[in-house]
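## retry 2 of 3
previous attempt timed out at serialization; input unchanged, resubmitting
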Amino acid sequence: MLIPDSFSFFKKTQRRCYGPSFTRVFYSAIDSIRYLGRRAILAFAGIAVGSAAVTALINVGNMAQLEAVSVFKGMGSDLIVVNLQPSPGQIAIGLLPREFDAATLLSSLPEIKTATGIIFTSSEVRRRGNVISSLIIGDSGSLPNIMRLSLAEGRFLGRSDADSTYAVVGNNVAKNNEKDSLKTGDKIFIGNYVYEIVGVLSRHGENLLFPFNPDDAVILPIDGMKRVMPVPLISSVLIRYKSSRPVSILADKLHEYFSAQKSGISINVQIPETLIDGMTQQSRLFNWLLICIGGVSMLAGGIGIMNVMLMNVSERKKEIGLRLAIGARPKDITIQFLMESVILSAFGTAAGCMVGIVGAAIFFYFSGWPDFTITLSSLLLAAGSSLATGLFFGLYPAVSAAHIEPVKALNDV
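## retry succeeded, writing output
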């Protein structure tokens, strides 16, 4: 009874150990790739280009998304802009400065931190024969706090300046004439009135969430806008709110509040948080588009591998027939050729990921973005898709090689 059991164990062990080892298959695949020469380099380059495209495009798209979202958040994610315009068919109907009371609004809606009504129009600012086309902004008092404005010199307008002819000018307006820049104490003409400059704003740049650029504006007390335009109506109400409740609920309350204040006006509540969410969603779609573009490059590299491996099988028919004739199994032949395609894909993936990172870094350098980030998902996706491409496009040549008839292959000239 011992002899049959021992023989059975020997047969199972022999079956399990039959065929070349993994190390032998690996080194044999390396030798075969060396034999391919320039064709292997072309297949390697195709996979490398696809992997580099996926890595670079995903990381560039991710950095662009982070930059866009950070810019919007820096503009003020706790900001609400209520636009007040006459309803269609209504003429000169709106909210007058005396009809808007920020204190009443804050007491009615405790979620609000601060609010200001603004009126804006365009006009010419004249000084010593120099004419500057500018926006004229009427502010009810809290505009510097809401827009987070800072001064290059002078002061902001206060409550005591409500009916005065004082003005605060933006940076571009002040420096419109380099030889004669505006400064505090200078006099300017707006319409038929003379205004004294009490403050000059620092440069702030354009903020897409606000209805105007403060650099190109002249700020006046809201009560003094009657000197500039015949019927001054509040165009917008800028609001900073507390982030304790969903902003959509506050937006509905603001719509109800201003609807009760005045009939016949169209109210549009603009929520930057919604814009940020929309920007994030668009960035995700853009990233998927970039991934698809990189996938096309990967597909081209996979086709290159298939062509190279098919030619390799065709040229090595005698070798394949000889190996099958001396005892190699179809599975061994399949594994051998799959190993070659996987090695080509692996080396192409490694080179492509490095080139993709360098490409993303070059794009970052010229873009001027503040932060350079490489996402792990981009490397995993590039590596996984490249290896999967090598396996997929190398499978058909490998299976074809395994099904070659030994006698026919050995007799093939």
